[in-house]
Amino acid sequence: MLLAQEGSPPAGGAEFGQIVLAALMFAVVFLPLAVFVIRERAGKRTVIGRVADWMGRVGGMPRWAAMPMLVAGLSGLAALIGVYWDVPIHMELGRDEGPLANPSHYPIYFGLMGIFASGVLSAALAKGDLPARTFKIGPHWRAPMGSIQMMGTGLVGVAGFPLDDVWHRLFGQDVTEWGPTHVLMIGGGIGVVIGIQLLLAEARQVGATGLAVRVQGPVLAGAWTMGASAFLMEFDLGVPQFPMLAQVVLVGLIGSWTLVFARLSWGPGGTLFVLAVFLLTRALFAVLPAVDGLHVASLLPYVAEAVVIEVVALLVGAGHGWRFPVVAGLASGTVGLLGEYQFSQWLMPNPWPAAHLPLFLVFGALASVGGALVGAWQHRRVSDVAALRERPTPAEPFRTRHLGGLVGALLVTGLMAAVVVPADPPPGLSADIALSESPQGQEISNPHGGGVPRWVNATVTISDPELAGDAVWLNGFAWQGGDFYTAPLVEVADGVYRTAEPLPAFGQWKSGIRLHAANRVMTLAPIYAPADPAANAPEISAVSGPRDFISEISFLQRERKTDTPLVLWTIGYLLVGAIFAGMWAFFAWLYAAAAAGAPTARREVSALP
């Protein structure tokens, strides 16, 4: 393990040398790409252009689609392999020495650059027979809308790296998958899939045919399921830092969006093909963590939702109205999520509790309806783009074309805003913790941080037994000492619990009692944490006695700076949120613009400088 170390890494931004090296890596990729673009747009023959022509002939696709789609697909796969490797590294070993000290960051960084490069390649190769609707880059340069979307999503992902360093310098490190700039990188990386879907539809519009074209459709739908599910990784691993309702909403959204799109696109059995792609890729993502001795993420398989959506399609039909997505979303978000509840009992480190299932089904049903509406909207735009030729599309009112998709998007956005922010514990909540030495510890996968081994058992008396008795989870927890552990406490009396497994109290370990109470309260009673001078965090000694439950984020993210002015936090969140929201709004506009209106003059799009 390349990250094993004895001391505490820096808690702020990267060293200047690593910034220079990252910039050089960027230049190595994009300077040759810039030369290619200049030569290609000047009408000169290039090696890349000749290869793109050959790939187009072999694949039955235009030159601006075949090679860029392959580059984008491989780049997105590399980035996700890196993400599924990176998150367990941080959970087991803590923060990095710097962005280039972590081996998992290389496939992420080069993957995101490859995604951006794929959009640039497609735009540069855009000559000859182009779609009816194109994006004007210059006086004699127009590109398919899918090219622009791939370029835009890659740009957001790549920009996440320098923004991440700025964020760390201002606010300290946030060792969580859902850190604001991390969301930009992951969102930018996975967004390439819907860009490829749009580019494929534009290729079909100009006559792309053949096996490659037919196969890529369902493969891309499965890839979208796989990519979007990356946001569930902390839940899959067992150390989520956001409420379980967020997991329920995301499962409902992702499952209904991707599976409704699949069923509308490929008819009976389309959802099963998507599931096959999803499950195979998740097996691929498990390889590097397993080889590296890290925890491997589990998963909810979307099987129940897929079966329900297939049944709904048979019963009510999968026509072009809004009835099918609404009914499919409701059924998937109730009956389907009941099935996923059962899968959670078998597969999830933190199973969905039966006591909270009614509330979960309410939020899950709403999220599923929203996701199904978005999936149906996306399918219709893809179908319109593929069918659009030299004639304008028939005029349709807004409510027919876009209202369902807009309602779905606003619904899921509102749901996520309502459930994603953890709440602090109620005042006065505390635990009386009695520690006893354990003669035997647990196996550590990647020992680091030194210290004399000490393992303790804890008996915990919680001041509010009713709150603990209705918990979403109540776990003994430890991480970042070379492994991580989480296990439910065992109730021994009313309000009194004991740890099921001994907890480490030495070295770089951070241990405590996690309590997630309905519906968003996430709190922790600390047991042990080392002194962290780089983060200005004092030692928490492992001794018996009373402990206040604190905001969980203040313990799990001890590296966050506490002296940064609130106004900077506000500006930072608003800026990142605006970029993320703007990215999705831009994508929706590209889809709508590609599918509607009079075609661009054919002579203008094929003219050379």
UniProtKB/TrEMBL annotation:
Transmembrane intervals: 16-38, 64-85, 105-126, 146-163, 183-201, 213-232, 244-264, 271-291, 297-317, 324-343, 355-377, 566-593
Coiled coil: none
Keyword Transmembrane helix: yes
Keywords: Membrane, Transmembrane, Transmembrane helix
Record carries keyword Lyase: no
Protein known as: Uncharacterized protein
